[in-house]
Design goal:
Glutaredoxin, 6 helices, 53% helix
């Protein structure tokens, strides 16, 4: 009364076995082809992202192929001139040897282009003797340090370094500042 596997296989025709094997083979090929297609698309996206990173990094290189120092970027005006103006100022305190400052400069450049009508932009090299007193008064201890300074309302806002990695994050903070400034202006 038991199950006899040998007897069951003797009753199966070779034609049925060939059909089952063919179906299993086709299924296996479809699975492999789907996996290969997935791998191809995933790799293609990674290559595209890598190519974009390379292009972005090339724009931040100087003539010698070295990363541009923050002082190499022609962004904004001198701090002493900016502080006498009417617009709020986005001030970057940096050191040329600081790798985080070097990495932040493309973001700062994008911001200077996007907000050129609403903010003045200024860079302060913390190692420059003419800014020694300013650096001490503001209390700069790390780099990069970014402040929104509003001479109109005698206000300083320190932007968290957590925002400095992406243009969108800094933009949201600048937009928030502009909304609050607009409210203050309407109260006058």
């Amino acid at each position: 009364m038991g199950f006899n596997l040998k007897e069951k296989f003797q009753n199966v025709s070779k034609k049925n076995i060939a059909i089952v094997v063919s179906i299993l083979f086709i299924l296996a090929m479809c699975i492999i082809a789907g996996f290969e297609y997935y791998q191809y698309n995933t790799t293609k996206e990674k290559v595209t992202a890598a190519q974009e990173d390379i292009l972005r990094s090339l724009s931040t290189l100087n003539e010698d192929g070295q990363p541009k120092k923050p002082s190499d970027y022609k962004i904004g005006i001198d701090y002493n001139k900016a502080i006498k103006g009417k617009k709020p100022i986005l001030v970057l305190f940096y050191a040329d040897w600081c790798h985080y400052c070097i990495k932040f400069m493309p973001v700062y450049q994008e911001l200077s282009e996007k907000y050129k009508d609403t903010f003045e932009f200024s860079k302060v090299n913390v190692e420059d003797k003419k800014y020694e007193r300013l650096v001490r008064e503001i209390g700069i201890t790390g780099f990069p340090t970014v402040f929104i300074i509003d001479p109109k309302y005698d206000n300083r806002i320190l932007l968290s370094n957590a925002y400095l990695s992406k243009t969108e994050l800094v933009s949201s903070e600048l937009d928030r500042f502009l909304r609050i400034r607009k409210i203050l202006d309407s109260k006058k």
